[in-house]
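Action item from last week, closing it out:
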Amino acid sequence: MTHLEQVLSDLKAELQEMAVLVQSQLKKSRSALMDLDKTLAKEVLHNEKRVNAMELKIDKMCENIVALYNPVANDMRTVFAYFKINSHLERMGDYAKNIAYNVIELPEPYSKGLMEKLELEKMFHIANEMINENVVALMTSNPSSAHEVFEMDTQLNLMHNKGIDIIVEEIKANTDKTRSLLELASIVRRLERVGDYNTNIAEEIIFCFEALVLKHKNTGTSND
């Protein structure tokens, strides 16, 4: 293994650690929401500093590789892909943090029946499974798992659309709870965006290992 190959391997390991941290943030935000656990929500906010610090560390590693090793061809494509994946993971961490903020502001828990109708537990699960598939693809240098992410994103989009319709009906029936229901709609939206960022990562992985550009094709993604 050349020195550059070792550095790229180290970079990949850092991305895996970043993904695991983001997954942990999403899981904690889910538990905080389901149990209205504001202490756990505050833990998510505190851990956001770790997410940001890891993003900066990985960015710096990418910059150093370009500056010190002058990579070309496949190696350069890999560095660019890793740089973008790092950014997408940080954005997912932001959404976990924002959900935690929502929890802290909630005066009372949402009804269990409403949470079940929205299938929020399942939305969180799918979002985390998408990260799992991307991590497997990244660590094995085999994009087959990344291809699975697009179908999962389609499912998440359908659940988001259905969920927003349900919340609109709830607002009509409970106008006194409009504010908290709008906050719930924002949570559903953020989970849908986590799915979008996962598809962005899948695209980068496929680009990295197959040299196939999927961006702007009809893969079900949307952009901010």
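Closing note: Confidence is low (pLDDT under 50) at residues 219-223.
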